Batch of 2 targets.
Target 1
Amino acid sequence: MNKFLKEFKDRGFFYQCTDGNQLSSLLDKKKIKAYIGFDCTAESLHVGSLLQIMCLRMLQKYGHQPIVLLGGGTTRIGDPSGKDKTRKILSEKEIEKNSKNIKKILKKFLDRTDKNTKPIFVNNFEWLKNLNYISFLRDIGKHFTINKMLTFESVKNRLEREQSLSYMEFNYMILQAYDFLELNKIQKCLLQIGGSDQWGNIVNGVDLIKRFSGNQAYGLTTPLITLASGAKMGKTETGAIWLDEKYLSPYDYWQFWRNIDDRDVFKFLNFFTDLSAEKIDKIKDEDINHQKIILANETTSMLHGKSAAKKSEETAKKTFSENSLGSALPSISIRKEQIQNNFTIIDLIIMSKLEISKSEIRRLIKGNGVKINNKTINDEKLIINQKLFKENFIKLSLGKKRHIKVEII
């Protein structure tokens, strides 16, 4: 088996392939271009996209050139795959802003020094914006049958649940197939990689290329990643784990990996780090907390740099072990005037955004889950005044894992 595909399988990335034997043979003979698409529905990607990013890195590792397709055009339509309802339609300015920021994030993960493997960034709005509807139906639409399109999971699931599927969304799979055709023509791209929910769309693209030009292309998918708890990768009780530090600090990102379920550690070391199988195997018998720290350091270094990872580890050690504060601990600032006129502990927690529900805050207080400077708070009516702030700051803690530094300005 080809070395790229072997590691792809060994690490657990592999789910389906349109023709594995042929693709393996092709990859042994030549270096190719392969693409992964990212729609621009938000200003930042979250860790739910991280496995696809790791696929791009692996392509580079084996000398192949990744193409990153930013869906400036398809975001205007909305991918129905895995969705219960139609996505919110964004304005052109929002999509453009999201596209630029996602590109900036992806550049952090990908090597741009080798001209042979340097990522190629494209935006499908470039070729979709000027499509002539009649010509598109005649030249491309004739290669699709409604019968087949109705069998794809993204369509079938919505219809079986009697949830509406707009004609606009129904066209998404044709546009994604057309993207693959365009990249095959313009860039000689031979492979599309995506999540398992994209299988139908990818197969459509492979078939369209074959029908339209006679060229052979391939599709490869990765499995759906869930946490051991059953939660979807990228989502937690406190919100999405964003890759942009504007939405999630390097420390909180580090903490996400440090606090994952024990059952996920080795799976995630394989999925989300560059550690070799030998190195991962070597730490199997080590303390689970040490393994989690390795995972947190490796993942955080990849996105935010080694310095941020080290600082996060030191801050966690000080915060949890030494009962002090570290420099990477997330912080908020409040003005002196704000802690006047009966400003309570509940008001402070809501302002900190550690918890937004007053009833949940009261429950935490009753369960001894709220602390200020490591001292348990039992009174939900506690007034926050300046005397509590030593050296103009306090450490506010909710449970064992959520901490924030509150400073007076």
Target 2
Amino acid sequence: MRAYDPGKIGCYAGWRRYENNPVIGERIGEVSDAMVLPVGDKYHMYYTHRFLKKILVAVCENALDFRPFAEDGVTDENTESKAYVIGNTFYSDGGDYGYSLIRRPELKWEAAVCQPFVLFAKGKYHMFYTGKRYDAVSDDYDRAVIGHATGNNAINWMASRTPVLEPDCLWEHNAVCYPCVIYDEKESLFKMWYSAGDIEKPLAIGYAVSPDGDNWTKVSENPIMKNDKSVLEKERVGACHVVKTEEGYLMFYTAWQDAFKARICMAKSEDGIHNWIRHSSNPIVSGGQFGAWDVEAVYRPVVLKKDNKWICYYTGCARGNKRIGALIHQGMELGL
């Protein structure tokens, strides 16, 4: 008789759910959009707090068991912000909730900050993130752009007062969001894959390049990847993470079947722009078991290589509540 393994429900192509999911749960509120980066001998997880409209950071040593509160042991019974701004620099000692980047509402385009992507390049840390503009008449966000902040220690950030990428192509409508950035040492070039077309659920994926992280050129006025009209991708694709490999580029992305059903998929391309080939086992991850915290939708994948395995961090949703979980794939071969 085959053993029942709840960690493999909705997982394919060798993936499984981490047994201690969610790694950031309901204690801290509604969270999403995790991005993990090795910093020294620890791992930093940068993520969105949806109610506070800020970017937070959690820390751990094994890339899985994150501590979402400050290192000095402050708990959720005694919380207050310890983050502040002087000029364009955000200072934080971690904060009770691990504040990393707080919004600047006076700039209009930063009524909320979210969807961080952090990397180390050219001797410093870079955070690319989405800033949203709030419209009082509609009582909703009406525009999304991408900002850029830099820092020497992955904690305190100096952010530009203007966006570095804005929606100016017809297909992008009123939003560019979900930045994924790598720095290509050989080409001395920052490369960004971003989503666009809708503030909350983007329609497709675009691509831009920059010599410095601030001045970007869109390679095409059209998306470099869009839905293939299959049932899986019937409505849209977006919220991706691209990894450069020896063979080319590997993309983990979100496929939306409809307004509520999202799954995690994979594709590859030789140049990171054209001819994306989907994984034959797509989706690699679907919703969890009945009643689970991620039963309705899984999306915004970000991956990390560690100890001959892949770890994929993702946002899961159930009953409208969003949490952050992890997936594990033993071995480097992904079957694509």
